[in-house]
Amino acid sequence: MNTSNLPEPDWSDPIVKWLLGFFGAVFGFLLLPKAIKLFVRRFLFGILGEVIFIVVAGLLTEKAVDAIGEE
Q1: DSSP per residue over the chain, as a string?
Q2: Distance CA 51, CA 62 (A)
Q3: Band of the pLDDT at 1, cuts 50, 70, 90?
Q4: Taking CA 34 as the corner, what is the angle to CA 28 and CA 38, rounded to the nearest 5 degrees?
Q5: What is the pTM of this model?
Q6: Could you read off the pLDDT of 12-67 as tens digits, one per residue?
Q7: Cβ atoms of 20 and 14 closer than 8 Å
């Protein structure tokens, strides 16, 4: 099929802008709570877990170095 004969969509048409804005806002309101929940669960808890792991590893390393130094 030759697509060069198809008319170009007129994105400056007010009804097209209104429909795109309306459906974009609906999509945003439906997606935003899920995106925030995913961000909190994945990134914040992941970063918090990594920080706790690094702190515990550092403390255990310090204790191991002290134990070896006392011998």
Answers
A1: --GGGSPPP-TT-HHHHHHHHHHHHHHHHHHHHHHHHHHIIIIIHHHHHHHHHHHHHHHHHHHHHHHHHH-
A2: 17
A3: low
A4: 130
A5: 0.46
A6: 778 888 888 999 999 989 998 888 888 888 888 888 889 999 999 999 999 999 98
A7: no
